[in-house]
Amino acid sequence: MPFQAPKPLHPPPPELVGSDVLVVDDERAWRTILQTDLGMLGYRVWVARDAGEALAIARRRPPEVAIIDLMLPEPTDGWALMRKLRLQGTPTPVIFYTADSTIADLPRDPSVVRFVSKSQDRADLYALLPPTIRCWRRRRASPEANHAHLRPPAAR
After folding, report:
1. What is the DSSP track for 15-60?
2. pLDDT above 60 for 138
3. Residue 119 backbone phi and psi in degrees, to 5
4. What is the CATH number assigned to the segment(s) 15-155?
5. Domain map of the chain by residue range?
6. d(Cα 40, Cα 9) in Å, to the nearest integer?
7. 93: which residues sit within 8 A by CB, 6+ positions away?
8. What is the C-alpha separation between 91 and 75, in angstroms, rounded?
9. What is the pLDDT of residue 99?
10. Is the bond leading into 130 cis (omega within 30 degrees of zero)?
11. What's the first-to-final CA gap in the chain, in angstroms?
């Protein structure tokens, strides 16, 4: 496969600069890469290496979107973390970021914006953030909205 240059990274629109993004990954390299990229783009980034840290961060400052590694170490994988976030009253939209090569076969959940493979260009992941955060803000402003509105129209 020939080399492909990475896609350009685009900062969020001005009204979304400073939006809170939670990154949860047990691999320090991925936490560092995402934290660095997202911070340079203008997001406020919180990182956690496991579900316990993620839940504590979300209790202190509920994120507007969470990027969660699907294959977190036992006993709490990405799915279980998403359920625990909901149970503690943090219905944040989730983007699963995973090395799992079978993401096309994973079950769908209305709370999940998208499954993104770690082998994809990170620009594709970052492009999901502005529409997701906008949908999240609209949902918070309209309490009668249901969880299906967590996903931006392009991700449905």
Report:
1. GGTT-EEEEE-S-HHHHHHHHHHHHHHT-EEEEESSHHHHHHHHHH
2. yes
3. -80, -15
4. 3.40.50.2300
5. 15-155
6. 10
7. 64, 65, 66, 111, 113, 132, 135, 136, 150, 151
8. 21
9. 86
10. no
11. 30
> Which residue, among 140, 143, 114, has the nearest Cα to 62 in the 3D structure?
140
- Per-residue pLDDT at 41 exceeds 70: yes
**Structure tokens belonging to residue 72:** 């977190």
Other beta carbons less than 10 A from residue 63's beta carbon: 26
| CA–CA distance, 14 with 7 (Å, rounded to integer) | 21
Euclidean distance between CA atoms 10 and 30, whole angstroms: 19
Q: In the chain, what are the helix, strand and coil shares in percent, each to the nearest 5?
A: 40, 15, 40
Please give the structure tokens belonging to residue 151: 């996903």
Backbone torsion region of residue 151, taken as left when φ is above 0, otherwise alpha when ψ lies between -120 and 50, otherwise beta: beta
List strands edge to edge, sheet with 65-69: 44-48, 20-24, 65-69, 94-98, 112-117
Q: Is the pLDDT score of 154 beyond 60?
A: no
